Each structure stands twice: as structure tokens, then as C-alpha cells.
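Two quick folds needed for the group meeting slides. Do the first one here.
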Amino acid sequence: MLIEVDFAGEVPIYTQVRDQIVIGIAAGLLKPGETLPSVRRLAADIGINVHTVNKAYSLLRDEGFLLMDRRSGAEIAPLMTEDPSFDELLSNKLIPVVAEAICRRMDIEDFCLTVRKTYSFIKRGGK
């Protein structure tokens, strides 16, 4: 999986790395048990600081997406079970997105269609 970062973007680089790994998992490009590059290797490949990758990996571990072992490194965790508390977290993350859609006069049908298209796009592996 190729990770690309936008150095000029507003989103912190560690967040971009985290998000792209989560998208890779959701799209089936990264499978449970698959080993990720070492922190040093990924940092060198992308051209970013080792601490930035370490922060992304730590966040992914804390969120349950990665398993970390000093000897074997980072690997994709088994797929998670359904978590009812995720609904609230998701709602909180969506509030600013929905608010912006409303401010831009997007109706709910178009918003839901966009969400469905995006969901399908990721499930198809980004194709």
C-alpha cells in the first residue's frame, strides 16, 4: 500500500498516515495479520520524521487497528467487533461535516447519496 502525504495541507501528517492505513484496512488492501513497515522504513519511504510515523502507529494501536510487538513490529489487528459506542463517536465526527453540507445548501438526499458512494468506493478497494 502506498501512503502519500500532503505536506502543504492543513491535516497533520500523522493524521494523514493514520487515515490512509485505516482506509487500507477498510478497503481490504491491508489484511489482519499483515505486517506494516517498521517506523524507520515507513518514515524513510515517505520522507517524514520517525516520530511522526511513531505517533500514527501509536494512535492506530490505541484505537485497536494495530498490534505492536517490539520484535515483530506493527501488524494489522483482527477485524473489530461491532461497538455500540462507535455510533456516538461517529456522530461527533460527522457534526462539522453535516453542518458544512447544510451551509452549502446540500439536501439530505444528496448528502446520503454522497456518503453511500464514498462507502462503496472504499469497500471496492478505492476503485
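Then this one, please, same format:
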Amino acid sequence: MEKTTHTITVCDQRIVYDRYDSGGPFLLILHGWGCNRGLFERTATLLAARYTVLVPDLCGFGESEEPHRPFTVGDYAEICTKFIDLLGIKSLALLGHSYGGRIILKLFEDGAPPFEVTKICLVDAAGIRKKRTPKQAISLAFYKVGKRILLLPPVHKLFPHTLEKWRAKRGSADYNAADEVMKKTLSLSVNEDLSNCMKNIDRPTLLFWGEKDDATPLSDAKMMEKSIRDAGLVVVPGGSHFSFLDAPLLFSRVLTSFFELS
């Protein structure tokens, strides 16, 4: 197995990716929000026992160029599709963690993507929009009204930094760490529910999940297990949103079996 690093331009965006070349069938790994391709080096090396593994940095992360404008999940899915097409790949397996899983779901929004998918592994995947509690709905309504008031020129002049501080207080760690383009990108993503995409997935699908995942809760995984025709769920007891790092040996054993590495 030989690992090489490449740069490719897709939709006017510069993408950096690693290729673990075994000469076998292709497998694409998509990392989560705030991460980069390096997080999956161990996983890619394991899978390269059978597959030629591709691990790109998503736009805005690692060494890949930041989006020229706020991206939707559809924009990331389009880049993924064109990336596969540019490399001349007709068939491949997919593995996605968190936001990477969200992109994989989006690929099936209109049915099957324009390439053959052999197997799918979703790890603590995002894509199901959380229902707001009454308290959260009231809080959001209050925030929207307050935002309009604070944007009024006289008010903004008197309190120029109040809205920024309020946003920071309400936002997640991922949101607060991002610049403006990526903040808008994240907002566009989390407000899109991809539940309807799951019915279009008819490939063998492995769901690997942390029991205590507080970002994409286990209830999401159970919904996916019911909605995807050929899905199986493996739960890491006490595992977090990074269940594959919490239980690396279990993850390796499960991948070895699912992807038939031995």
C-alpha cells in the first residue's frame, strides 16, 4: 500500500486529498465538521488492505480551500460527486463521520447518485434535524426579535458589539470557532433535515455510534436503522460523538468484518 497526497480543483475549489493505493476497489472517507483527513489515517491504512482509499479535506478544513461563498450540504455533495467523476471512478464504498455522513445522505436525496455505491458506513452521522422544545422555540423567537432591534441603526450605534456577543453566547463551539463564511455554511447545514434521503439507500449500511453522543444522539442512529433498508447498528457503550476514537479496536474489528478485509 502506497500513500500519496494530491491536489485537485473541483468546482473552482482547491481540494487536497490522500490516496492509499492498494490497487483494489475504491472507498471514499468523508470527515466531520472541524476535523481533517489526518483523523482517519489509521482507518484508511486498515481499509487499504483491500481498498484504494481516498480521504479528502472538505472545503474549509485542513489544507483544502475555504468555500468562496457559504456552502449548502448540496454544494458539498456536488463537489463530492464531481471529485469522483474527475478521478474516473464508477463504483466505490463510502464512509462518513458526522458532517461527512450528512453529505452521504444528501447524495441519495433524488434517488441513487450517478455512480455505484457498494457499501456505506455512517459513524455518528449528522442529517436529522432536531425538533425544538417549546423552551427552545420561545428562545429562538426572542432572539430573532432582539436581533432585529439590535440591527436598527440607532440601537446598533449605541451597542455595536451586543449582537456579536449574544450570537457567541447562543452558538455552539463549532459555530463560534468558524469565520463568517463557515458560520453561514454551518447554519445552512443544520437547518436542513435529510431524513427523507434514507429511504433511497438500498446498499448494505453499517451504523457505528456512541451511546452518549450528545451531538447526533443514539435516537438518530435508531431512526436510520429503521429507515435504511439494509442497515445494522453497532453501539459503543459510553461512547461519544467520536465513537471510533473511543473504541478503536472495536471499530477496527467491525470494519474488518463489514468491508471483508480478511
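Slide caption for protein two: The chain has two domains: 2-129+187-258, 134-180.
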